[in-house]
Automatic annotation (TrEMBL):
GO molecular function annotations of the record: acyl-CoA hydrolase activity
Any one Pfam family match given in the protein's UniProt record, by short name: 4HBT
UniProt name for this protein: Thioesterase
Length: 156
């Protein structure tokens, strides 16, 4: 057991990751979803979503917009771990649906693939409660002129 005086201070990268988690939680759109972002390391993200009938289409499964939201967010935050000064913008995103989501807990796993300067590529996959992949996507993200430090939700 260690006390606070023996623990190492968080690295600059870890502070950036915690600030990105705070940014995610502060976004008004995310108040519409039961979700939370976890960034365990550089180039990866994990978003836990609880999907229920409020996001279903008429045939009783999650609407495609929910797949996009989960996949885009996971790939975006994985890519934004690589950029500590600017907010990224999604410039394109391709998604593939493999199974319907009938509700429950869904994990979006994001991963940075390439790029560090102007354009970054990230990918994500969705895993349902049974451990099955239900969708995947790949996106490109561009550095914006928006400084992360100027966003009220970004708190290192």
């Amino acid at each position: 057991m260690t006390d606070a005086s023996q623990t190492k201070p968080a690295s600059g990268a870890a502070l950036h990751w915690r600030a990105l988690e705070s940014l995610y939680a502060s976004a008004p759109v995310n108040s519409l979803f039961a979700s939370r972002l976890e960034i365990p390391g550089e180039g990866v993200s994990r978003i836990i979503f609880d999907v229920d009938e409020r996001v279903f289409h008429a045939a009783g499964a999650a609407h495609g917009t929910i797949y996009f939201k989960m996949l885009d967010d996971a790939a975006f935050y994985a890519a934004n771990t690589m950029v500590s000064d600017r907010f990224l913008l999604t410039t394109s995103f391709n998604l593939h649906f493999s199974r319907p989501i009938k509700g429950g807990r869904v994990i979006a796993e994001g991963k940075w693939v390439s790029g560090r300067r102007r354009v970054l590529v990230g990918e994500a996959r969705l895993i349902d409660e049974e451990g099955e992949e239900v969708g995947r996507g790949t996106g490109t993200f561009m550095r914006s002129q928006i400084a992360l430090s100027g966003l009220p939700g970004y708190r290192p």
